[in-house]
Structures are given as structure tokens and as C-alpha cells.
Design goal:
about 250 residues, alpha+beta, OB fold (Dihydrolipoamide Acetyltransferase, E2P), de novo design (two linked rop proteins), 2 domains, five-stranded mixed barrel, three-stranded antiparallel beta sheet, 8 helices, 8 strands, about 40% helix, binds zinc ion
Length: about 250
């Protein structure tokens, strides 16, 4: 059987059977994949620490036609998340971002932009960037790359271009112009609208160094939360843990 090789970022692992692990990882070429790592729970496992969540690795796997789950042959660590895990806020932020990507990334389809988003936001956390800015960036971009975040340029109702202040209509789940806005619409602060523009224009490393104040980032996060919950019908599992950690940070 031919071994496929790819760069990948580990999203999630869980123990399976006595000595094995099930691993979900993201690749640029084939999106999200699921694989067995045989013997990964053994003390002398050849996989070592390379199967930790958000580790960036070079992975070799085989695919059998009869089996939807792959088998991991080799894993070489490119970048560990370990340094960021020493900080509680970064560590919980990383777990949350991994769940976010795990939830929205397509399986078995190219996902280069999502891969890059995950790679760069993880790197930002490792560089010690403020977690709140990295999370807001990841939340909104993930929804945008998933085709779920509405346009902030044109009105969802009439298609006309939007002026400030920006308004969001909860029922229509989109930004709406002054003329179309009904009572379900609320005004987004100009600071948050500016931060949203910056977020779409800038790479994460730049966005976090000029990050907006916390209250503006929280406003962006609550917008992302409305869109995400409306789409999923529920909240992400690690959302509350993250909220309680950020609340004390
Ligand atoms: Zn309109």
C-alpha cells in the first residue's frame, strides 16, 4: 500500500481500545482526516509527543479503499504547542480554536486557507500574542472561510452598499442598511466595524499587534457567536471553559 505524506496539524485525539489512539488532523490538500494510530498509547510509542493537539507534523498514512479511517504510519514533529501550554489562557484558547476548526473544516476536501488560518493563529499563540485578539480573529475568519459570515459591505436585504454605522439584523443573520433595518437590527459600534475591516485585511500577526481594546474585541466575538450559534444550533463545547478563563485573565 502506498504511504501518503502530508504536512498536518493535529486537531483532536482520543484513546481507543487498549493501546491505540484515534486521531483527527487537518491537511492543506485533503482537509480533515481521521486515522488510527496503532500502539500510540504505549510507553515506548514511536509516535512520542507528536500526536498532541495542535502539534504541527509531517504525517505518513495509508488509506484502504474499504476503510474510511486511515492508518498512521509515521509522524514527525515540526512544531509543538508545548510552550503555549505552559500558559493557561493560551492553552485553553488553543483547545478552543482546535474545536472551532474541527467543527467547520470540510472532510476530504482541500482546505488550504483553513489550514493556513489554523497554522498562523497557533503560531501567534506560541509567540505570546494576546489570546482574546487571536480568538476573535480565528472565530470570524473560520466563519468566513466556511461561507457563513455575512458580507459587511452590502445590505443583506437590498444589496446596496453599507455605510456607518453598521447594523446587524439577527433575524436575517446579516448586515443591513439604514433603510431596510427593522426592529431586529442593532447598531455595531464604529470601533468594532473598523476592527472587522482590519481583521479581513490583515494577517493575524499584524492584527494582534495593533489589536483593538478588549471591549471592541468582545463586540466582534459576540457577533461571531450569533452567527456561529445560529448556524450550528448550539455552542462549542469548550466555549464556557474559555469564557471562564478569559474572565479571570
Ligand atoms: Zn438595504
Amino acid at each position: 500500500m502506498k504511504v501518503e505524506r502530508s504536512e498536518a496539524i493535529i486537531l483532536h485525539t482520543w484513546p481507543a481500545r487498549e493501546r491505540d489512539k484515534m486521531v483527527v488532523f487537518l491537511t492543506p490538500e485533503h482537509g480533515k482526516r481521521k486515522a488510527w494510530a496503532y500502539g500510540a498509547r504505549g510507553i515506548k510509542s514511536r509516535f512520542g509527543a507528536a500526536l498532541e493537539p495542535l502539534a504541527k507534523v509531517r504525517i505518513g498514512y495509508v488509506e484502504r479503499e474499504s476503510d474510511e479511517v486511515l492508518r498512521i504510519e509515521s509522524v514527525d514533529l515540526i512544531r509543538s504547542l508545548f510552550p503555549a501550554q505552559q500558559n493557561l489562557v493560551s492553552s485553553v484558547a488553543a483547545t478552543y480554536i482546535a474545536e472551532l476548526v474541527d467543527t467547520f473544516a470540510p472532510a476530504d476536501d482541500p482546505a488550504e486557507l483553513i489550514y493556513r488560518l489554523l497554522d498562523r493563529t497557533t503560531e501567534a499563540l506560541l509567540d505570546g500574542a494576546p489570546a482574546l485578539a487571536v480568538i476573535a480573529y480565528a472565530e470570524i475568519w473560520m466563519l468566513r472561510l466556511g461561507g457563513i459570515f455575512p458580507s459587511a459591505k452590502t445590505c443583506i436585504e437590498c444589496g446596496g452598499s453599507l455605510a456607518r454605522p453598521l447594523r446587524f439584523d439577527e433575524r436575517l443573520q446579516g448586515f443591513i442598511c439604514e433603510h431596510c433595518a427593522g426592529r431586529d437590527a442593532f447598531v455595531v459600534s464604529n470601533e468594532a466595524a473598523d476592527a472587522l475591516d482590519a481583521l479581513f485585511r490583515q494577517p493575524v500577526a499584524e492584527f494582534v499587534t495593533r489589536a483593538a481594546p478588549a471591549e471592541v474585541l468582545l463586540e466582534l466575538r459576540s457577533l461571531a457567536g450569533l452567527v456561529r450559534r445560529n448556524f450550528l444550533g448550539h455552542e462549542l463545547k469548550s466555549f464556557d471553559v474559555l469564557a471562564s478563563i478569559l474572565g479571570t485573565a
